[in-house]
Amino acid sequence: MGVFATSQHIMIEHAPQIFATFAFILVLAVFANILQQVLIRRSHEPPVVFHWVPIIGSTVTYGMDPFRFFADCQARVSIGIFNSPP
Fold first, then answer.
1. Which helix (H) or strand (E) is 37 found in, with range?
2. How far is CA 72 from the centre of its chain?
3. How many domains does the chain divide into?
4. pTM reported for the whole predicted model
């Protein structure tokens, strides 16, 4: 039991550093994602819908109201897949 108590004490002692490291990695990922969307434009690919969280993207916005999501995308982008044929 002494070894378990010691390892548990070490985990509690280092919890703030572990939390700070995960928070830093999350903030860095979000910041890198935003920079990539704003600075890197690929002319041969469809336009990117702006999103904050890297993996989740615009899933939450799309899930809440898909029709308004597509209308907003169409208003932002006047070319591409959001145009209806003439």
1. helix 2-39
2. 19
3. 1
4. 0.62
In sequence order, the 6+-apart residues with CB closer than 8 A to the CB of 81 are 46
With respect to residue 8, please indicate whether it lies within any of the assigned structural domains.
yes
Token pair for 19: 């939390």
Tokens of 7: 């390892």
Which residues span the domain enclosing 56? 2-76
Alpha carbons 82 and 78: distance in angstroms, whole number: 7
* Residue showing tokens 């995308």: 73
Q: Residue 61: which residues within 8 A CB-CB, separation 6 or more?
A: 51, 69
pLDDT tens digits for range 20-63? 999 999 999 999 988 988 888 777 877 778 888 888 888 888 89
